[in-house]
Amino acid sequence: SSSGSLPERDAYGKNGFVHIKNPHLDLLPEDILYHFDLGTKTHDLPSMFGDVKHGMGIPSISIMLHELIKLLHHAKCRDVTIIRIGTSGGIGIEPGSVVITDVAVDSFFRPQFEQVVLDKVVVRNTELHKELAEDLLQCSKEIASFPTIIGHTMCTYDFYEGQGRLDGALCSFSKEEKFEYLQRAFTAGVRNIEMESTVFAAMCYLCGLKAAVVCVTLLNRLEGDQIAESHETLTEYQKRPQQLIAAYIKKQLNIS
Ligand code: R2B
Ligand code: URA
Fold it and tell me: Which part of the chain is the Nucleoside phosphorylase domain (predicted)?
């Protein structure tokens, strides 16, 4: 990759392998990952997980959620809270701001997700857990490290034309039309755009999971389309939702 010489890459070993900073680990005859119920002798971890890649967008997260929710069910987990964290494009807010979603909306700013089931369109609710969103906002005030707001999140099926970008391989609208659309989104209460929130909200709601969506904004879409901040800045931004959720979890567990 072009960012091979950046300091963050030092955390990784040669050939892209994850570097474990623990000299004792190599001396273990077997490493048992107790909480995952996996071990290096009992399981062929490279063949089980060596090709793990994370997808993007509604189809990827929906497949993952089907199986995660069934796993929670089979494991008889109770009172589960599930939080999607990630990146997004902001609308009219400072880059690096974190948006806690109150409702995920589609490209028409409708608070719904349309799932095609057989040959019918089933419309599902995309509201998120209000109290959880408020608790997360409160947490962000306590850590006070970066701007955080509650707002609507628009979920699209595409990163380029689907998010009104002028820099895709295809573009079938004018600059003026782009701004008019983003302006209307802002007026409708949309503060950021990403690609998973509607199906996430819909599935969690139907399955009775307390759910939140917390995404950092990498840019202000009223100012541009390209993600041009430095690798360092983007890495720092991406840590923000994790920092907020870590603070929330600590608070829930009463750890200071
Ligand atoms: C946010 O970032 C990704 C696109 O760059 C996508 O997964 C999303 O929702
Ligand atoms: N992710 C998106 O989906 N859009 C952006 O603009 C940035 C990150």
Answer: 52-250
Q: Cβ(160) to ligand 2 under 6 A?
A: no
| Interatomic CA distance for residues 197 and 153, integer angstroms | 7
Q: Check whether 254 has a pLDDT greater than 80.
A: yes
Alpha carbon distance, N-terminus to C-terminus of the chain: 39
Q: pLDDT digit string (tens) for 169-201?
A: 999 999 999 999 999 999 999 999 999 999 999
pTM, to two decimals: 0.85
Q: What is the DSSP string of 167-218?
A: SSS---S-HHHHHHHHHHHHHTTEEEEESSHHHHHHHHHHTT-EEEEEEEEE
Which of 56, 85, 99, 194 to mutate for ligand 2's pocket (most ligand atoms within 8 Å of CB)? Answer: 194
Mean pLDDT of 82-86: 98
ipTM of this complex = 0.99
Q: Domains of the chain, with CATH numbers?
A: 1-52 (no CATH), 75-252 (3.40.50.1580)
User: Phi-psi region for residue 188, left (φ > 0), alpha (ψ -120 to 50) or beta?
Assistant: alpha
162 lines ligand 1 (CB under 6 A): no
* Cβ(192) – ligand 2 distance below 6 Å: no
